[in-house]
Design brief:
- There is one protein chain.
- By secondary structure, the protein is of the alpha+beta class.
- The protein contains five helices and eight strands.
- Strand 1 and strand 2 form a beta hairpin.
- Helix 3 packs parallel to helix 4.
- The chain starts with a helix and ends with a helix.
Length: about 160
């Protein structure tokens, strides 16, 4: 009986320790794919995060490299936080990302590095923020006719 009690106590301590280690783990960006998708290491979990509310140019699209670099610069050596809200059709986690308490979606739209994703978001503040960036001709809005990523993908995706 004493051996069973010791085993139960050790099991409980191990269980509690595993939760405390997970609570201390902080998410880290391991890779930036483009201006709206990153790879996150959060404790033992490694996953691809599609940032909500925005659609940034693809890496091979005009302005795609600049958008990616802007996200890297914002989040390099930053304290990050992630709020997951779902999974998209490509099995990527969907969620909000903040770097040093700066909401990435808002930053990318404000600086003209991404479109507001009206198809999947109803955030009127971000929609207005995109309109402001367009009028100020920031980032990709300096181009005469920037091609939205959803249009570019249709033309460049092999069937």
């Amino acid at each position: 009986m004493a051996a069973f009690i010791r085993f139960t106590i050790l099991l409980a301590i191990g269980w509690l320790f595993s939760f405390s280690v997970a609570a201390w783990a902080t998410p880290v960006i391991k890779q930036v794919y483009d201006g709206d998708t990153v790879k996150i290491q959060d404790g033992d979990r490694l996953y691809k995060l599609r940032i909500t509310d925005i659609d940034a140019p693809e890496r091979n699209q005009k302005y795609g490299k600049q958008a990616r670099r802007a996200l890297i610069k914002l989040c390099k050596h930053a304290d990050i936080s992630v709020q997951l809200i779902g999974i998209d059709k490509y099995q990527r986690d969907l969620g909000y990302l903040s770097c040093n308490n700066i909401p990435v979606s808002e930053f990318m739209i404000t600086e003209g590095h991404a479109w507001f994703n009206a198809r999947y978001s109803s955030n009127l503040y971000l929609q207005t923020t995109e309109e402001d960036a367009r009028h100020a001709r920031r980032g990709l809005w300096k181009q005469k006719r920037p091609i939205p990523p959803w249009v570019w993908r249709q033309k460049h995706t092999r069937n």
